[in-house]
Amino acid sequence: MILIAMGVSGSGKTTIGEQIAARLGCGFADADEFHSEANKKKMHEGHPLTDEDRWPWLRSIREALEAKREAGVDFVFACSALKAAYRDILRDGDKDVIFVYLHGTREVLADRLGARKNHFFDPSLLQSQLDTLEPPTEEEAVFVDIDQSPEQIVDEVIEKVRQRG
Length: 165
Hints:
Layout (H helix, E strand, L loop, with lengths): L1 E5 L6 H12 L2 E4 L6 H8 L6 H21 L3 E4 L5 H8 L5 E7 L2 H10 L10 H7 L8 E5 L4 H15 L1
Parallel strand pairs: 1-3, 1-4, 2-3, 4-5
Helix pairs in contact: 1-7, 3-4
């Protein structure tokens, strides 16, 4: 099983993804690790990424995902996966890929971004991410509200993923 913790910046993808992986006893990778230096620089300077910036990044994540599947291991990725087309690339017809949509209000997201230290993402880009976001359907993803503790979020994710079977 491959889980992808998705949502806009500030939704807790990395924190929750790491905790899910720890709870499941499997590996974790943050999609930020797959960004080119040019993409990181662009975001740090407050410029939103374009689809052209994202295509190579998404393909590299899919390659890593396929390597985990071929190795037969469970794994958790954290990736914004903002658009349906991005999720299509990441899933590539693989029914064992489960998206976990971490969603919250703009206020909660902005507060979280404001509290971050030493991250390349400029908090002013939150609105561009919200504008880009094409929320998944409930058939496409497990939905979890982020306005609760990380432990509660992880509990809810694990329960919903198990129910989905």
